[in-house]
């Protein structure tokens, strides 16, 4: 009689254990399902993130290409819209009067003159050493070029070379005096080769500075190119927005003989292009002097 109650208790224990195992198995399945679901969700999120990152990278590349295209278009547009392209028709002597003499990209040469009575705006005296002490108008340069000129001189000093400024702005009247003196003392041919007629000088723009060094006694001579200062200037002037305006061997294009001392401010971007292309300002804008046109005929 005592066995029956014991059996009953055992049966109840077995049933409870069985129920617990079934519940644990069920929870395990649910946990596995939840874990798998989370893994799938994580993979989807990773793929989505990768896709978004890829799309963003493609958008950045496309935007960069668009920006570069825009820069190139603006560069070409700026070149086309330059002062050099907007001038009036030549007069009966083939001379063009520049329409905007204050633009830094203007081209002044024997065929292209500044308007009568033109005086550049905002002339200042740059903080650079000069080859003379007294104040003269040629100590001046336009404000837009003064800062870059000062930086150029600082760069030269850091490189261990000592530049001095010799001649900057030159008025129409001063240029007229110099040109007439050269005609009287050295003849018309020499004057036209080495000196500009009044109204045709870059010095009148206020964007030019002649420089020299002690190695050539502060003179403006071709030998300046062989000095450490002349060598540094040829290699680094463009980094500050200046070009060697009259390169060697290009007199038939520029109209003037080689002047390694004559630097002209055109801005860093244009100076860099002209330096890299080893070209002249005339060629950069597709302009030539009468001598070059005759040579090509």
From TrEMBL:
* Coiled-coil spans in chain: none
Region of interest called Disordered, as start-end residue ranges on this chain: 22-98
Q: Signal peptide position in this chain?
A: 1-25
What keyword terms does UniProt attach to this protein?
A: Carboxypeptidase, Hydrolase, Protease, Signal
Q: Where is the composition biased (Basic and acidic residues)?
A: 30-88
CDD domains tied to this protein: LD-carboxypeptidase
Task: Name all D-alanyl-D-alanine carboxypeptidase-like core domain ranges.
Answer: 139-268
Q: Which InterPro entries match?
A: DD-CPase-like (IPR052179), VanY-like_core_dom (IPR003709), VanY/YodJ_core_dom (IPR058193), Zn_M74/Hedgehog-like (IPR009045)
Q: Which domain of life, per UniProt?
A: Bacteria
* Keyword flag DNA repair: no
GO biological process entries? proteolysis
Matches recorded under SUPFAM superfamilies: Hedgehog/DD-peptidase (SSF55166)
Identify a single GO molecular function assigned to this protein. carboxypeptidase activity
Q: Does the keyword Protease apply?
A: yes
**Pfam families attached here?**
VanY (PF02557)
Q: What is this protein called?
A: D-alanyl-D-alanine carboxypeptidase
């Amino acid at each position: 009689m005592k066995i029956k109650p014991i059996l009953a208790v055992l049966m109840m224990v077995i049933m409870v254990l069985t129920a617990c195992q079934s519940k644990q198995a069920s929870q395990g399945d649910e946990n596995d399902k939840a874990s798998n679901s989370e893994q799938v969700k994580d993979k989807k999120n990773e793929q989505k993130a990768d896709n978004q990152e890829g799309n963003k990278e493609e958008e950045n590349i496309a935007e960069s290409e668009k920006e570069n295209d825009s820069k190139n278009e603006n560069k070409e547009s700026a070149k086309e819209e330059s002062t050099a392209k907007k001038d009036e028709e030549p007069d009966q002597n083939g001379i063009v009067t520049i329409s905007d003499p204050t633009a830094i990209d203007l081209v002044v040469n024997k065929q292209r003159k500044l308007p009568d009575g033109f005086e550049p705006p905002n002339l200042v005296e740059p903080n650079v050493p000069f080859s003379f002490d007294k104040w003269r108008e040629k100590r001046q340069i336009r404000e837009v070029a003064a800062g870059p000129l000062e930086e150029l001189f600082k760069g030269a000093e850091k490189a261990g070379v000592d530049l001095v400024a010799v001649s900057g702005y030159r008025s129409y009247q001063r240029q007229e005096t110099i040109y007439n003196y050269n005609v009287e003392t050295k003849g018309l041919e020499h004057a036209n080769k080495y000196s500009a007629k009044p109204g045709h000088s870059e010095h009148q723009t206020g964007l030019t500075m002649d420089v020299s060094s002690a190695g050539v006694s502060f003179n403006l001579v071709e030998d300046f190119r062989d000095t450490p200062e002349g060598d540094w200037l040829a290699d680094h002037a463009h980094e500050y927005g200046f070009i060697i305006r009259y390169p060697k061997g290009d007199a038939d294009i520029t109209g003037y003989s080689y002047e390694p001392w004559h630097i002209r401010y055109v801005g860093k971007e244009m100076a860099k292009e002209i330096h890299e292309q080893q070209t002249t300002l005339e060629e950069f804008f597709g302009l030539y002097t009468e001598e070059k046109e005759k040579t090509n005929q």
